[in-house]
Amino acid sequence: MRCARGPPTSTLPLVFLLLGFPWRTGHWVPMASPVRRWRRVPAAAGDSADTASATAPVVVWLRNELRLCDNPLLQRGLQLAKGNLQLVVCLDPREFQATTAFGSPKVGELRKRFVEECLCDLRRRVAERGSRLLVQQKAPEEVLPALVSEGSTVLVTAQVCSEERAVERRVRKALEAKGAALEVVPAAGITDLVGPEELQRAGVPSGEEFPVIFQRFFLPLRPFLLEICQKGLSDAPVNLPSASGAELEDEELRLTDAVPGTDIRGGETAGLERMTVWLNSGFRSYKDTFRSLQGDYSSRLGAHLAYGCISPRRLVKEALSHGSGQSSVHVEHFVYEMCWRDFFRHTAARWGTGLFHVAGPAECGAHGMSSESSWKRDLGAERRWKEGSTGVPLVDAAMRELNETGYIGNLARQFVAAFLIEDLQIDWRVGADWFEATLVDYDVHSNWGQWARSAGVVPTNEAKRNRVGGTRYYDLAMQRPEVSDYVRNWLPELQDVADEELFSPWTNSWPIGKVLSATSNGSSYSKPLISMRLKQYFESVSGASRLCGLPSPRRAKKGKGQRKGGMIV
């Protein structure tokens, strides 16, 4: 089917099995309850099939591996198929019609469009090779049994989240009733850099013994990374077996209108192009620029990694091949950040549902890092934080960028989290939940793992504890030469405020209203929702600027204040 462009329709948004919450309403849950349900499920006997019937179709069930290159899941399908291979994406209505436990949409509009673009690109690439990508807006346990016959095998990549595991169990039961099997393929080389085999070689324990301190994972693994990342890579197949016998009709992929302000395009084609361009440009200064607030300072490949448009091993291998001379420090830092992505995936598997408790995993209780009573809920404050109307210009600018573009850079993520956690003392899961709803590059493991670390509810090293709290992330932001232009770019109502008053507008005669009007004409700004500690901090920065006693925020050079953000990597 063709990929038609047009305005949004009343049909369901086209999103494949996205990671989200099990609740289907906006009702609040008790603070002691986890907001996700995870469970490690051992592989059932008979999961694997080395051969398939000559007439029975082999089905590759795609979830977070939307690519043809470097895809061991697809290669396994080609190995088993005897001339009949069906690629299928199931758009489960239980995923994208729901709201989270905190009342947010499970998947925001910007991420929906990204996934639509991924599916359009993959469908085109599959069709060019003589086959088809079947897209269905139904539950997998309804779709997959209709594609198989006795002796068929359905392939899927291993995941650790309880929702996906629950769907797998329902699919397995439905397939068994038709004499078909579900084979779960290990995630290493597909969605993850490493698995238990690679960890064992590096001397790093896996599963429930996986280390909770990053350096204990990264340092033993680093010498083996290049060799590991050279495995499982492959070009896209020249041809694909035909998908015959399926009676289901394709769903038409209908792209919504392009969203102003975001330049991240979905799909394997766009992901590979971006990887090539960035590795030969911004990558060479990554360690110096990854904390910037605007400009082309980061790879912006996080969304492509989250949905499997590109292989994490391919990206690390290509990055390491660019590491020589003066660029090596930037290569090492990028690889370091990529390994954080895998670290969060393995720690999430270790902690299970505990990661989503307000006080963190039960095993972390002995650390005395947090408790349920340490957090509060304030719907008014939460709303203002989400919409970017707290009256704190630096925080508001970042939140408005997030809402409009679907991404913000590494540093911005850190200081908006610090504001919600340290100053408002709001339940940290409210922030993780909002990032889930709004980020284009949302990944459940990295998102919730990083928020839990910022909240101090999971073990971490002493250096991280010293960074959380205080004003470190604000200091880093205020030292950026583009910080003033960044704030003005996203807060037009402060466009004419002088630099020395820009970050504490409540100290001067600038009109301050109780709530920022949705149709502000530049004459008012929100009354600040701020702790005394942070209020004094921004006033001291402004005062230092006026007295020239301390470095002040500097305006970026003309032409640099563009609405661009960055991904975690």
TrEMBL record:
<dbReference type="InterPro" id="IPR006050">
    <property type="entry name" value="DNA_photolyase_N"/>
</dbReference>
<dbReference type="Pfam" id="PF03441">
    <property type="entry name" value="FAD_binding_7"/>
</dbReference>
<keyword id="KW-0157">Chromophore</keyword>
<dbReference type="Pfam" id="PF00875">
    <property type="entry name" value="DNA_photolyase"/>
</dbReference>
<keyword id="KW-0274">FAD</keyword>
<dbReference type="InterPro" id="IPR005101">
    <property type="entry name" value="Cryptochr/Photolyase_FAD-bd"/>
</dbReference>
<keyword id="KW-0732">Signal</keyword>
<keyword id="KW-0285">Flavoprotein</keyword>
<dbReference type="InterPro" id="IPR014729">
    <property type="entry name" value="Rossmann-like_a/b/a_fold"/>
</dbReference>
<protein>
    <recommendedName>
        <fullName>Photolyase/cryptochrome alpha/beta domain-containing protein</fullName>
    </recommendedName>
</protein>
<feature type="domain" description="Photolyase/cryptochrome alpha/beta">
    <location>
        <begin position="56"/>
        <end position="190"/>
    </location>
</feature>
<comment type="similarity">
    <text>Belongs to the DNA photolyase class-1 family.</text>
</comment>
<dbReference type="InterPro" id="IPR036155">
    <property type="entry name" value="Crypto/Photolyase_N_sf"/>
</dbReference>
<dbReference type="InterPro" id="IPR036134">
    <property type="entry name" value="Crypto/Photolyase_FAD-like_sf"/>
</dbReference>
<dbReference type="InterPro" id="IPR018394">
    <property type="entry name" value="DNA_photolyase_1_CS_C"/>
</dbReference>
<feature type="signal peptide">
    <location>
        <begin position="1"/>
        <end position="28"/>
    </location>
</feature>
<dbReference type="InterPro" id="IPR002081">
    <property type="entry name" value="Cryptochrome/DNA_photolyase_1"/>
</dbReference>
